[in-house]
Design brief:
77% of the residues lie in helices and 0% in strands. It has eight helices and no strands. Helix 6 runs antiparallel to helix 7. The longest helix is centred in the middle third of the chain and has 36 residues.
Amino acid sequence: MSESLMQQPLGAILDALASRAPTPGGGSVAALTGAMAAGLVSMVCELTIGKPQFAEVEGELRAIHAQAEQLRAELQRLADEDIAVFNRLAAAYKLPRTTEADAATRKAAIQQITRLAAEVPLRTAQAAAALLPLCTTLANNCARLVVSDVGVAVLLVRATVQSAALNVEINLAALEDQVFVRQTRAQLQDLLIGLGDEVDGIVTIVRGRMAA
């Protein structure tokens, strides 16, 4: 799929996803899932801003809305970037290796692009994780009828981070630069440690407000 995912009808994206075509794949799905989480955050803000009972936190809600929209735009870009990097990597694997020089050039290209293929899902995980503090605040400061949407956003964030992490790891396994591998794994671990507890804490807030 060469055209931007954002310019495709949803049905076409799902058909491509279910086909033999290698893209969109797991990396793009992770980014799109994160973008949907950000969209839900923005929606809840839109439905809460302007309500008299939330006047005291309206400034904070507007800031959350702005941040969510920035993250949504980034995650949408990352969905397309994941496809672009995959296409570059596929092309690198097709480079000639007839001579030793050819083989060396091919190997270097594969290593360089595989590094990018690890960086893109890492950025996806980072962008999605940045939604969690927004959700914490929003879960306590939104209309009760839309608090479940905050819960859905949080669960999508967890799916995005964990899914993107898998895409990071599979590319790290093919890299020879062990310094980069260790640094990237450390960054990934920082995102994953405590993720479940943070998500569960927000879901507990959501369920508490739903039952009130």
